[in-house]
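Appendix B, Record 12. Input sequence as logged:
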Amino acid sequence: MIDLRSDTVTRPTPAMREAMASAEVGDDVYSEDPTINRLEKNAAEVFGKQASIFVPTGTMGNQIAIRLHTQHGQEVICEARSHVLDWEMAMMAAFSGCLARPVAADRGILTWNHIKPAIGAKIYYRAQTGMISLENSHNMAGGTVTPLPVFEEIWAGAREAGLPVHLDGARVFNAATSLGISVAKLTSGFDTVMFCLSKGLGAPVGSMLVGSKKAIEQARIHRKALGGGMRQAGILAAAGLIALHEMPKRLQEDHANARLLGEAVAAETKVAEIDLNSVETNIVLFHLRGKDGETGGDAAAFNAALKQKGVLASMTGPHSVRLVTHYDVDRAACQKAAAIVTEQLRSL
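Logged structural output:
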């Protein structure tokens, strides 16, 4: 099977497995795991932040950040298709007592002009805005990338408004690779950043939350409250160190493979709709037109047919298909997948 459902399906590299087998460990709840400590120090340095904390999942990292920056009864401004809204089990309400204030934006890219009108008025009978949460790259918009100047305007506006800004950077290394800049520069104005080691970077488990020393000290309390106090987790951190330092170097290969798939879909305009300009990273998102060229086609049936031919894809809606490239599918596999996707589109 050529598995293009997600970049979370990757298996650890041989180097990761070797590092995990020989990792020096201790009890991380006592801050005594040397491999965890090294990963956290390295992650903070890579992002130019004071400190970081290792968490099991990106969802936990994002939700800790929301808890850090807000009070119960406040609102969180986020894009209408953002991961914190649609894929994190309403935890900003359950854990932080906050309401999402979703704002729709073309290609998922929020600007200050989108955000400013959504900020709650400073009146006592209106819920106040607690924070702004952004996403880069944007998963459900098809891996689109927010450029640095857009962020810079948001950071300046948020500072003036007195609002903290968090980045769901699950795939921020993909975004930085696409823009040709460092993750430190791309995220310099955020109060906190979450990034995944297990999305695109190949680690079997884990994400990081980076920020100020004070924020990360508080984050340890919230991590424990969510059941994230791990013990000899250096076994996982050993793979994370390789993911952090080595795997970003090859992300451009995934982007090139995604472009290959996107162009294959774009050639079949009678039955598929895709914005090739949105294929900036490792995600390809397209919509099936259906037999009349307008009504949406059946994504579930389409993916079932792909599976029969050896390709696994995911759905983002009843008419929408998503393909994600990653370390475990090389150029040859993607070329084969592109041919199969083309064949299936032409059969519709």
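The chain has 14 helices and 13 strands.
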